[in-house]
Amino acid sequence: MIRARTREPERPTEQHPESDALILRDQTADGMASTAPDHAHLLKVGIAQEVVEVWSAWRDGAPPTPEEATLAIIYYAEHDAYQSVV
Hints:
By secondary structure, the protein is an alpha+beta fold.
Protein backbone atom coordinates (compact mmCIF):
# COMPACT_ATOMS: atom_id res chain seq x y z
CA MET A 1 0.00 0.00 0.00
CA ILE A 2 1.13 3.54 -0.64
CA ARG A 3 0.74 5.97 2.24
CA ALA A 4 1.46 9.67 1.94
CA ARG A 5 1.95 12.55 4.35
CA THR A 6 0.77 15.94 3.20
CA ARG A 7 2.71 19.15 3.46
CA GLU A 8 -0.18 20.61 5.44
CA PRO A 9 -1.27 18.37 8.36
CA GLU A 10 -4.50 20.33 8.80
CA ARG A 11 -5.51 19.18 5.28
CA PRO A 12 -4.78 15.42 5.46
CA THR A 13 -6.46 14.45 2.20
CA GLU A 14 -4.70 16.98 -0.01
CA GLN A 15 -1.72 15.39 -1.76
CA HIS A 16 0.95 17.06 -3.89
CA PRO A 17 3.86 15.74 -5.96
CA GLU A 18 6.08 16.98 -3.12
CA SER A 19 4.19 14.98 -0.45
CA ASP A 20 6.27 12.49 1.50
CA ALA A 21 5.18 8.96 0.54
CA LEU A 22 5.92 5.40 1.65
CA ILE A 23 5.30 1.99 0.18
CA LEU A 24 4.40 -0.52 2.90
CA ARG A 25 3.80 -4.24 2.83
CA ASP A 26 0.21 -5.28 3.40
CA GLN A 27 1.29 -7.50 6.29
CA THR A 28 4.42 -8.02 8.33
CA ALA A 29 5.74 -11.45 9.32
CA ASP A 30 3.54 -11.50 12.44
CA GLY A 31 0.37 -10.95 10.40
CA MET A 32 -0.19 -7.37 11.57
CA ALA A 33 -0.77 -4.70 8.96
CA SER A 34 2.09 -2.29 8.41
CA THR A 35 1.32 1.22 9.58
CA ALA A 36 2.69 4.71 9.43
CA PRO A 37 0.36 6.76 11.65
CA ASP A 38 1.60 10.09 10.31
CA HIS A 39 0.85 9.03 6.71
CA ALA A 40 -2.68 8.66 5.31
CA HIS A 41 -3.63 5.72 3.07
CA LEU A 42 -3.38 6.74 -0.57
CA LEU A 43 -3.65 3.62 -2.79
CA LYS A 44 -2.68 0.01 -3.14
CA VAL A 45 0.43 -0.45 -5.28
CA GLY A 46 -1.39 -2.57 -7.88
CA ILE A 47 -3.96 0.17 -8.41
CA ALA A 48 -1.22 2.79 -8.75
CA GLN A 49 0.47 0.63 -11.41
CA GLU A 50 -2.84 0.30 -13.24
CA VAL A 51 -3.35 4.07 -13.12
CA VAL A 52 0.01 4.60 -14.83
CA GLU A 53 -0.77 1.91 -17.44
CA VAL A 54 -4.13 3.51 -18.24
CA TRP A 55 -2.53 6.97 -18.41
CA SER A 56 -0.09 5.63 -20.98
CA ALA A 57 -2.72 3.70 -22.97
CA TRP A 58 -4.95 6.77 -23.22
CA ARG A 59 -2.00 8.69 -24.65
CA ASP A 60 -1.11 6.27 -27.45
CA GLY A 61 1.43 4.36 -25.35
CA ALA A 62 3.51 7.37 -24.37
CA PRO A 63 5.27 6.77 -21.04
CA PRO A 64 4.51 9.38 -18.37
CA THR A 65 7.23 11.44 -16.80
CA PRO A 66 7.65 10.80 -13.06
CA GLU A 67 5.65 13.98 -12.36
CA GLU A 68 2.85 12.98 -14.75
CA ALA A 69 2.64 9.52 -13.16
CA THR A 70 2.54 11.06 -9.69
CA LEU A 71 -0.20 13.51 -10.65
CA ALA A 72 -2.24 10.72 -12.28
CA ILE A 73 -1.98 8.60 -9.11
CA ILE A 74 -2.97 11.51 -6.88
CA TYR A 75 -5.89 12.33 -9.19
CA TYR A 76 -7.13 8.73 -9.03
CA ALA A 77 -6.77 8.64 -5.23
CA GLU A 78 -8.80 11.84 -4.85
CA HIS A 79 -11.49 11.20 -7.51
CA ASP A 80 -11.65 7.40 -7.87
CA ALA A 81 -11.34 7.98 -11.62
CA TYR A 82 -8.57 8.05 -14.19
CA GLN A 83 -7.17 11.41 -15.22
CA SER A 84 -8.62 12.38 -18.60
CA VAL A 85 -6.57 13.39 -21.60
CA VAL A 86 -6.38 17.17 -21.94
